[in-house]
Design a protein that fits this description.
heterodimer; A: alpha+beta; six-stranded mixed barrel; 11 strands; 53% helix; elongated; B: alpha/beta; six-stranded mixed beta sheet; four-stranded antiparallel beta sheet
Chain lengths: 420, 233
């Protein structure tokens, strides 16, 4: 053991490695490439993961959307093809009857799915945009960025049916000059004056886009004469509940309330974000697994290549080894030297691969940093994974080094020194 | 210094057994310079290999500096070689990627001498063989005679009891051969025991004693008047 810590040992090995440059390079390429690929793939997988995460970031991932459609099975004397209209009563019923639910937020819209858009007028300019009627809590499931100076709809707005609106960034750009203040300004929507209280920018996964107008839900219901009707609802399950299971309970409840046949899958439409996230996560996990498999397989191939080259060089160095032994090198010293050469080569190779892989990731990060929509975000590698990879190739290098080392001492010095 | 009794060695060649050494009795005193002569197949190299602990005898006794050499495993043999013996080969056997001084220092490395001491000793031995200025040259940059002188310095570096030279001049022209023999003689003059295997009469005559082998036995063992190599240089 003491042998490993002596400076001379390493000098001897350094000498042998340095003096055989070509051999060293060829030996090292396999492992360097392996580690490089490993680091690169791992980093890219992480970057993709980060990118997905940041896209879902603005959304409560255990939430779902639910809307009414048409029945497909006759039930209780009702014909099939009956349209289902969700109302605020459904919201109340779900809140009180389904305990797994954290929030139920009713939403209403005009300008989507066949309904006419609202007329937006400011000064001499006008345009048609989708108008949403929302509660403040919609921001809990689908976060929007509100530009400085503004705010989103609050409870007071709802309570007093205030005529206030939050407009999208695109609308702002169309109707206001750059730097002009929109908050506090008055605009006309469908002939009624509204005060602008905020400008928003939507998250990428949102359905609203940046060209919509948000009104307090109550205001919306009055102005567009909606009564208790709603377009759809956003439901979030409690953090410890499974949204997919919750969805089933909710649908069952609603079917009962609306006189829908229990097997009717058409009556209610839904989009389960939790399910989608799970799918993406599954995909990411699969990709990581593949990365690991490919990376590790490449590493093993690289280490075997090192063993292979060392085995050949041991043959070439038979005479040198014979001389060393004639001069007093014990078999364990010879074995130790060959093995340390193997370990050293694997380690250096791994380190070079790691450095290049990291540099490439760094370069990619520099490229995509400024681009918010890049599919790769902050590609990094887990240091622990890299340390693990390096450690395991050193172990592999040790094991594979045993073969040439054993070969080196299996030749008797007298045979190694025999004159041709 | 060296004492061998009834030494036998045979090699297995397929189903045949080749009896190479058939009972050698032989002793070498301290400070002797012995030439071992014989035609090829006479067993002279085998004898040298056994003396060098590179090979083991089937039968017989071997004492080196009072130590009974027997039942050697590789590790023990390596340690004895390092402590007792210096080797000089026909084809020099320098390590091609090490320069002259590193080659000379190698046995000292295996003696676990520290670096400073290795370099100092290696340097002084290189100077002794007249290659002080060539210390940092690789073997490929040296002539045959210079290489053999480096090899001699290397054999001396560990300060062995006995030098074993296997055809040390076999790969050299006669002028260079005499230069090498001159060095060997001067080392012997300082009291080192040296055994030289050769088949050249003139080289053998530069030793103090000639032992002739034929078919595995000693046929002649005579003291000779030493011819000084320096007169040819």
């Amino acid at each position: 053991m003491r042998y490993i810590f002596e400076r001379d040992t390493w000098q001897e090995i350094y000498g042998a490695i340095r003096k055989n440059k070509m051999r060293t390079i060829i030996t090292v390429v396999g492992v360097t490439w392996g580690v490089f690929l490993f680091v690169f793939l791992l980093g890219m997988a992480k970057g993709l993961d980060n990118s997905f995460k940041s896209q879902f970031n603005d959304f409560a991932t255990n939430s779902m959307f639910l809307w009414g459609q048409q029945t497909s099975i006759p039930n209780n004397g009702f014909k099939r093809g009956r349209g289902i209209q969700l109302t605020l009563d459904d919201v109340e019923s779900l809140k009180s009857q389904v305990s797994d639910i954290e929030y139920v937020v009713p939403r209403n819209v005009t300008g989507r799915w066949g309904t006419p858009p609202g007329q937006f007028v400011r000064g001499s300019k006008s345009g048609a945009f989708s108008v949403f009627g929302d509660y403040p809590s919609v921001d809990k499931v689908s976060k929007k960025k509100i530009f400085e100076g503004g705010r989103f709809i609050n409870e007071e707005d709802i309570k007093y049916e205030r005529k206030v609106c939050v407009i999208g960034e695109d609308i702002y750009k169309q109707f206001y000059d750059q730097g002009e203040k929109a908050v506090g300004d008055f605009v006309k929507i469908n002939g009624i004056y509204f005060k602008v209280i905020g400008v928003y920018k939507a998250s990428r996964t949102g359905a609203e886009g940046d060209d919509s107008i948000f009104l307090p839900f109550t205001t919306f219901q009055t102005i567009f004469n909606q009564g208790r009707n709603i377009s759809w609802m956003v439901i979030t399950a409690k953090p410890d509940k499974n949204i997919v299971k919750t969805e089933a309970i909710i649908k069952k409840t609603l079917k009962r309330l609306h006189n829908v046949h229990p097997d009717d899958e058409q009556a209610f439409g839904s989009f389960n974000l939790g399910e989608q996230v799970a799918k993406v996560n599954g995909f990411l996990t699969g990709m990581k697994l593949i990365t690991y498999i490919v990376g590790i397989a490449t590493l093993i191939a690289g280490v075997i290549a090192i063993g292979n080259v060392l085995l050949i060089t041991v043959k070439e160095r038979t005479r040198e080894i014979g001389v060393r032994r004639a001069l007093g090198a014990t078999p364990s010293e010879v074995r130790g030297q060959i093995m340390l050469e193997s370990i050293m080569l694997t380690f250096i190779a791994g380190l070079i691969g790691f450095i290049f892989g990291t540099l490439l990731l760094w370069g990619i990060n520099m490229l995509v940093k400024s681009n918010e929509d890049a599919p790769i975000v902050n590609p990094t590698v887990d240091l622990l994974a890299v340390a693990g990879a390096l450690a395991s190739i050193v172990v592999l290098g040790t094991l594979i080094g045993l073969i040439p080392a054993q070969k080196a001492v299996s030749v008797k010095p007298i045979e190694a020194l025999r004159e041709e | 210094m060296i004492e061998i009794k009834e030494l036998h060695k045979s090699y297995q060649m397929g189903s045949n057994s080749l009896h190479v050494l058939k009972g050698i009795d032989f002793s070498v005193k301290d400070g002797e310079l012995v030439a071992i002569m014989g035609s090829s197949g006479s067993g002279k190299s085998t004898l040298l290999n056994i003396l060098g602990m590179l090979d083991e005898a089937d039968k017989g006794e071997y004492f080196l500096d009072g130590v009974h050499i027997k039942d050697l495993n590789e590790t023990k043999a390596a340690q004895y070689r390092n402590k007792f013996l210096g080797f000089i080969f026909q084809s020099f056997n320098l390590i091609n990627y090490k320069n002259a001084i590193e080659n000379v220092a190698l046995p000292l490395y295996y003696q676990r001498k520290n670096r400073k001491e290795r370099v100092e000793k290696a340097k002084s031995y290189l100077e002794k063989v007249g290659l002080g200025q060539w210390a940092t040259h690789l073997p490929s940059e040296l002539s045959g005679g210079q290489k053999q002188r480096v090899a001699i310095a290397r054999a001396l570096a560990a300060d062995p009891k006995v030098l074993l030279a296997d055809e040390p001049t076999g790969a050299l022209d006669s002028k260079t051969s005499y230069e090498v023999m001159d060095i060997i003689q001067s080392i012997n003059d300082e009291g080192k025991t040296i055994l030289v295997v050769t088949h050249e009469e003139d080289i053998a005559n530069m030793c103090k004693r000639i032992v002739r082998l034929k078919d595995g036995v000693i046929v002649e063992d005579i003291e000779v008047e030493q011819v000084r190599a320096s007169q040819y240089v």
